Batch of 4 targets.
Target 1
Amino acid sequence: MNFVVYQASRRGGRAVNEDRVAYAYTPEALFMVVADGMGGHSHGQVAAQLLVQTMVSLFQQQAVPRLPNMQAFLLDGIYAAHDAINEYALRNKLNDPPRTTCVAAVVQGGVACWAHVGDSRLYHFDKRRLLERTRDHSAVQQLVDEGLLSDEQMRMHPDRNKLYNCVGGYALPDIELAQPVTLQEGDVLLLCSDGIWGEISDREMLATLRAYPLERAIRHIMDHAEFRGGRHADNLSIVAMRYGEERFDDNELVLGDDLGLDGFTTQLKRLSLRVDESLQDKDIDQAVAEIQAALAKYGLDKSTP
């Protein structure tokens, strides 16, 4: 199975990074997860860490080298994490269990499946457009679904982070499970916390993913989201994979290696994707230009003289 996977996380303007992000893989299966500890509850980062550790451990146990059932794995992993978080609260005599959001995905045999709880998102892009994204478990998302708010208004809404569904706490999480999807060469699955999607539109994500190899594209998205968030930027986390082979020309924008405080990044391997140069989209090209101009203006484009 050929793919490129890349992950990164930064604390932004917050005192601590309550996000956790991870991936694990075998020769035939890939697992990715993002968890955003809920800051309104104590020990949010612990909840996120427990979720990631629980699901990665379960993947390592079951993927030998393939998962017997991708959907069952996602459901079992999230429920197991919910129990682990509540057990932690009992052992430590916490008045209120910590809580976290979750978005997790599995890819094997050319098929992807994902599940989520809360407002951490998965985006599925092909080479030209957004094919699908998860729907947040929030009252503001319901307003969007009812046609009372646009996606852009949702991103700016002061109550966008008020959730009715999470992992950890007294109620079982209501896990939203996607049907398996067949991936095509060049498809991208991007999982992220709200520190990313609250600042970057899906059009901008697609433009950047089309313009650059995965690692550089993710670093562009992170830089731009962190700049827009300013001094009070939320934690920012992404794990993304491009399916198939990846091949770009050598004239892309190059960024430096500094990820900031509490930042980390890992890369698995670079295999290769051939971009279809015949695909043109004026809106996407314009978004690329806007992102490049903003990065250059604020000194984030290290290749600018």
Target 2
Amino acid sequence: MLETMRWLSGEECLELLDQTKLPGEIVYIKCFDHRDVASAIKNMVVRGAPAIGAAAAYGLVLAASGAVANKREIFLKEMETAARELAATRPTAVNLSWALTQLLQELGGATGDPTEFKGLLLEEAHTIFNEDILGNRRIGQYGQELVPQDGNILTHCNAGALATAGYGTALGVVRAAHAAGKNISVYAGETRPLLQGARLTALEMLQENIPVTLITDNMAGFLMAKKKVDLVIVGADRIASNGDVANKIGTYGLAVMAEAHNIPFYVAAPFSTVDLDLKNGSGIPIEERDQWEVTHHGGHLLAPAGIKVWNPAFDVTPHNLITAIITDRGIVQSPYGENLREM
């Protein structure tokens, strides 16, 4: 598997795999301050809710390296400012603000000289990174029990190793089922407009010799009607307390079609993706991205110049369309409001 990110202690920088260039090129870029990391998150060099959370954590470490304050109170204000800049890059994924809050809370309880704080932040960033990989493996083990021995799995976007610190959430379930010896195959929806399914999910599955077939997004309904799908598994960028799920645009449509064809629809995500402060999905902020992502591909104009474009990056799937939510703490089923809070 390709590494999504790595901390280079000798150079004091974060190295990120540039996912905008995959699968054609494998290129890593180096981030030497938190603004480099913020730019990489905004421009989707690194993407996926758990991955941008971990990247932002390292971004705050870089902010601490560049801080000039020698007084604790001023240093903390500098870190809060850097955290706000990082959090503003992509508002929908709650893992981003969750990771930054974890680091700021560590700082809030720290005493001593600010010159010692960077080491504390780096340790916490490493913990977030490593715990994400371990948590994803737990998601895989819990989730693979829901996969039949002979199963055709439809997934959307990329919720694999490339969207996390490693292993993956939805694709973590796929990996675990494959490792358990189950005879599975994957249908990867291409995921317009940036084709994360075609470019990234297909690449991950091919690298691991897991049977995969690429389809365009508008083929999913007919694929279900032809009885070629046994279950749908997707990731999540934010889960409200009632179980409503924000994920890559197109997820809601898949959930509606899965219900119409009586196909289980599963969401796989770490518990850090759950936002218990949100009553339901209507409160989830939905990022809207630049129109060029829709009107252009590979630098080429695909639509009439000047056309009006609506480009939300995510949609919200109501909890009643979700069969179960697979987390690193276990499988959650309806009633989600009660069971998520209990977990």
Target 3
Amino acid sequence: MKPFAGFPAGKTRFTPIPDLFYTELLPRIADLAELKLVLYMFWALNRQRGYPRYMTMAELEAEGTLLAGMPTDDDTSPVEALRRAAVRAVEHGILLLLTVASEEQQTDYYFINTPQGRRAVEQVKAGELILENTGFVREAYVEPQRPRIVELYEQNIGLLQPLLAEELEEAELTYPADWIYDAFRIAAERNVRRWRYVKSILERWAREGKDDGNRSFQRAGQRSASGTWGRER
């Protein structure tokens, strides 16, 4: 493949992307296929005219440029990689999925999660807007996202001190989200509302495995209840 020759001089078209994409979404997108799909959606919808603006899965699957950029292996075709990327983008709240089904066909519509996209989805659900395929609207199931570590801290311990912010961010990158959630839950159930205790649970799970760590901290929690542990200094 020849290297990119560079952007040409003169007038070129640009695709606007909100700054929040770089500050909020880019750090969260770990999958290359999802990143390519989201960027392609911004490009494709920016070139549409009128309202509403969306892409169907059938249209996306027919986009040769998009499919050519999908990462594949022996077990994954470009179309399969695209579909998985769409699922992840919906789970992350970047894209909105609206499925309209009739006896003859089912169509998956994808909108970017902007005010215009949200309004179009709500209008279709309310029967105020009809897309090219009429039928029953099916809600997309999205697994609830775990609260971020800062939210868990403030919900279970208190107002976050600036000196702890960097340590919490490092923990969020180090441990699985469900570990962090469970560690805060255990600390709250035992009324040990301090970050050092939550951190010690996570460190023990990392060393011994989550099941062993749970049993170990069950004993620790019993000591806490007796007054030996759990006192904030």
Target 4
Amino acid sequence: MLQKFLEVLAWTDWLALVWFAGCWAGYSVIADRGIIAARGLVGVGHNYRVLWAQRLIERDNRVADSALTGNLQSSVSFFANATVFVIGGLMAVLGGLDQLMNATRDLPFARQVPREVWEIKLLLLLWVFVTAYFKFTWSMRQFNLYCILIGAAPAPGSPPEQAEPYARKLAAVSSLAGEEFNLGIRAYYFGLAALAWFINPWLFIAANTAVVVVLYLRDFRSRLVRVLSEP
């Protein structure tokens, strides 16, 4: 089975797969864990989460904080539900692969490849959206725990040695949940890029490059980052 898998893919397909994995993993490391992460949306957003947690502990009435957290959970839940439909659609396409092959036969720049290659491409796309689903559901669980932490937050006027560490814990849990949500959205971006592989591996490489550029501009060079970074 493995030998057949190695034989059906051309060297350009392997190159595209390696580029796909490198772009996704490399950008995630640089944007979320690299030395420049603090200057992007991840780092700036965490600073505001810390500020939110500090203000939350100062307030006696935390209904607004619970409502805001509910809005965040609704967004994550929407994408998780949408991803289920995407996965179901891809499973249906696997069952009707012949129709898809016929539909793309006349597309410009499209290559004629064996059925096994189409199955590999669809399985890659399925894996991307399954990964997104796991990210969204893990984000939902963390936001649920964040709601519990809001309920257990110290009362207003608590000693600083008790309130400040708890505020940072609140911010850390919120950031972890937001990070998982962000990773799920990122999977959507690379899933859209993977669609280009059905046409041509070089187009797949170009699409992944374009996704990295778009993500970088939004995470580090957008007007939103500049506004949030202002003193």
